[in-house]
Amino acid sequence: MTDAEIARMAFQAYRNAPPVLRGFQALRPSICPIERLLREIPPGSRVLDIGCGAGLLLVAGASSGRVASGCGLDINERSLAQARRALAQIGSLAAIRFESAPPESLPRGAFDVVTLIDVMHHVPPAEQRGFFAAAAARVRPKGLLVYKDMCARPWWKAWGNRLHDLLLARQWIQYVPLAEVIGWAAEAGFTVLRKEEYTRFWYGHELLVLRRD
Fold first, then answer.
1. Is residue 53 a contact partner of residue 74, using CB atoms and an 8 Å limit?
2. Which residues in the chain belong to E strands, given as ranges?
3. Interatomic CA distance for residues 4 and 67, integer angstroms
4. 208 contacts 114 by C-beta, under 8 angstroms
5. How far is the first Cα of the chain from the last one, in angstroms, to the nearest whole number?
6. 16-49: b or e for each residue (b if 16 or more CB lie within 10 Å)?
7. Residue ranges of the domains in the chain?
8. What phi, psi does 50 have (nearest 5°)?
9. Cα(10)–Cα(27) distance, rounded to whole angstroms?
10. In this structure, what is the dihedral angle of CA atoms 152, 155, 156, 159, given to the nearest 10 degrees?
């Protein structure tokens, strides 16, 4: 799916959502490289999306056939309710559940792909390393961990996103240097397959695709 196709799908899938949320889901592919993230999920995968929000990545993955089963986790029940409605709206047969769960109670079992998309900067600094390790532990051998977060440099991109989160999430976010994430991944037995950067408007994105050896 292209970003334009994802946007059209989102507009339909979230058509019963409040107008602001519906509009945000349809516009999100314009500011976040959803299409690029989907390409890292092999067709028919079992996926754990931690911090799934309203579920756009899993809904798009189910629509495209890349996600066959899995779980989306978030702490916002209203967002999860919209994710469930969107999945039903597209008539997907994928066995995906959306659950409210704190970081310390991630579901057990091995997943083909675990995704951490724009999550880590919301985690308190003292908990970031342990949070990453818990997510990494849910990846099966030879499986993938897809990590994307906002860039800390250049400063104007970082501040653009910081203002975005102050407005929408009412939170002062804490960036994690990508070198630290790579170090944590190595400790957990992962190899870096890809490291890429993207810019959408003033939003800077850092992508890591990691394989568990």
1. yes
2. 45-50, 67-74, 95-100, 111-117, 139-150, 190-200, 203-212
3. 19
4. no
5. 29
6. ebeeebbebbbebbeebbbbbbbebbeeebbbbb
7. 3-212
8. -90, 125
9. 9
10. 60
Quick one: 101 exposed, middle or buried, by C-beta within 10 A (0-12, 13-18, 19+)?
middle
Residue 95: beta bridge partners? 69
User: 147-192: per-residue pLDDT in tens?
Assistant: 999 887 776 676 777 776 666 666 666 788 999 999 999 999 999 9
Burial of 194 (0-12, 13-18, 19+ CB in 10 A): exposed
Rounded to a whole number, what is the largest CA-CA distance in the chain?
44
Q: Are 68 and 46 in contact (CB under 8 A)?
A: yes
- CA 197 to CA 81: how far, in whole Å? 32
Degrees, nearest 5: CA angle 43-44-47: 100
User: Structure pTM?
Assistant: 0.91
CATH of 3-212, one of 3.40.50.150, 1.20.1260.10, 3.40.50.2020, 2.60.40.10: 3.40.50.150
